[in-house]
Every structure is written in C-alpha cells, then in structure tokens.
Model the fold of this input.
Amino acid sequence: MNSTHALKEIQDKVFHSRIEESLILLNKVWKDKQDSKEILETLQPLSLFAFSHRWPSIHVPKEHEYLLRLLRLIPENEQIDFLNRFVEYLARVPKYVNDETGSFPSDGEGTPRDYKQEYLSSLDAHKGMAALFSAFKMAESEGLKEIFRTILQVGCNDVSQTAGHYFSCTESVVRLGLGAGMPRDKNHIFLLTQYLMQFSPIIITNYRKPTQNLDKILTRLVKKGGFVGYHYMIVANGLIKNREFLGEKHYSHALHGLETIILQLDDTLSKEKLDLAIKNEPKSGDSLKDLKGHVWKGEKAKAFAVLRQYLKEEGVTQRLKAAIAHSFTNINNHDPHYVTVPTSVFELIPSLKNEEVELALAHSIEFAVDRIRKYGVVA
Done:
C-alpha cells in the first residue's frame, strides 16, 4: 500500500469513527516513516467539522493546528503518542460535514464593491449568508491573505470575551486556512464566519493603545495562573506571532485589551512562591523521568523542584518540552488545552526575560497537574 492510499484510508476510517482500525493504520504508516505533518494534513478536513461534546467545536481544528506546531518542538520518537491521542479522539467524535468543496460564487461584472466593509457589516448584522458571499468575493478579488487578515482582525476587538477565544481560536483556523489553499480554504472561511457571528461588536470604532510596553505586560502575565490566566498566555503568544500580519492598529488594540484584563486576574505564582514550594525538595536523580512521574502523580512541588534543577543543568531543551507536554488525561475527558497551553508557553519563551522562563514553564506544569488531578491520567 503506497503512502497516499494509506493516508486516504486513515481519513476514511476516522471519518466513519472506526477507532481501532484508524489507530492500527496510523501506527503502520508511522512505522513506515510517514511524516507527522502529512498525517495531520490528511485529517484537516475532518477536524474542521468535528463535533466536540465538551468544548466549542472550533477547539478541534485549534487543537489540530497547535499539534502541528508542538510536534516540531519535540523528539520524533515521542510524536506518535500525540498522534494516537488525536486520531483516537477525532475518530470518536461525529463529523457533520465531509470535505466537499465547490467553486466560489460569482455575481458577474459590475461596479467595484468594498467587500471587506460588506463582510464586516454583514457579520455585525448577523447576516451569515451575506457575510459568506462577501468573504468569498473578497478572496477572489484580493486574495486569501486579505480575507483571512480581516477575519483575524475581528478577533482583536475585545479579547476579554470568553477568555480571548475569539482571537485565539480564530488565529489557529486562519493558520490552517492559509496553508490549505483554494478551494479547500472555503471550509475554513465558512467555519470562521459562523463562529465570529457570535461575537459582538464586530467593527472596531475606537482603536486603543496599551499604556505599557509588551515586556511589562508579559512580566505581569507570567504570574497569572488558573484556567483564565493560561488562556491569556495563548492570546499573548498569538498576538506576538501575528503582529505584522494584523497590522499595528489591531495589534495595539488587542494588546490594550490584554493589558486591561490581566489587571483583573490574581497572581497565582511568583518566584517567591516557587522558592517556598521547592524549599525542602530533594535533588532528582533522573530529572526528566522524575518530572513526568511527578506530574502524572499530581506532585506539583516535586515537579517544580525537578524543573529548576534541569533548567540549571541543561536549559530549555526539546526533551524538557516533551516531558512537560506529555500529560495525557483520559480520552473520555479529552481536553484540547493539553496541547494549546504548553505550546503557547514554549513559543513565548523567546519573548520572556531569563528570570521569567522558569515561571512560565512552572505554569505549564501546574496546568498539567491540575488537569490530571481533576480527570485522571492514561499511561
């Protein structure tokens, strides 16, 4: 069986929820040295229209896109664990649309129209079909990049809504869409338009600017934990990565929103709290093995101590990232944040001061421990 046929067969088994057969085929192509990126790209049409029982369904393609990024950060031999988890989940959940892509609609020749403004106005008025028509016409006339830029700019309006999901979820699906190319990206535009119609208001009428620079905002942010605090690390990372794509006005407006919201969040972790937590913890023998063990047992202070020791001896490595991210909870309690939180923290590291890196990684460990304490763990 050639690789193209094998990948297509995996797609078919996942679409029809044949869980065991999907996993058998996945592990077969993995042993045949199939690239993880190609496997995930084959599954993209399914993740766009998968139904999530526990989270908004847009979290499924969001998890998909973050997984593409995370697997670039960890050793190849550990990637199959993450692929197995995602394929099993995707096979379990119902998919309500297959990858049927058609041509963009056309209204013929006529007077040039401002499709961007029409798209935003239709979204603001909750007129979904009109918004889609304008989106597709904008893609035809100005290119995919411009319609996806416009869609992502909408999410900059108010990052305080639903912990910034209208930006962070949109950002992930925009990335998938930009990589998909015509005509498949029609599915991405459809999904994002339907998602953003829940958002209000759509149009920014008064652009704001933060009172502090990015460094100071991040210094505050890395002290914020809890489920909401972790979400704003995801938002901050997305803003930094998309600054040029968004344009300065929308980037600054969203950064102002981030600055405002983090002032309302509690400081849950600091260097002083970390020092106190690990004060009496012994030195680790096999630090990475011990780190994963402590995380899976819910031993937060011990995991923090191992993290500090490893950072002093080795610094931030791929193996450390894999050990932190490898925190699988039971598949019946599938949580996409096992990918989105650590990946965002890892990608934020270049923007952090040296003394803030340990704190950010400690937050990622704390997140994993908290989820495992709540939902249990699968070895």
Summary: The chain has four domains: 3-53+72-92, 115-196, 214-262, 271-375. Residues 354-375 form the longest helix (22 residues).
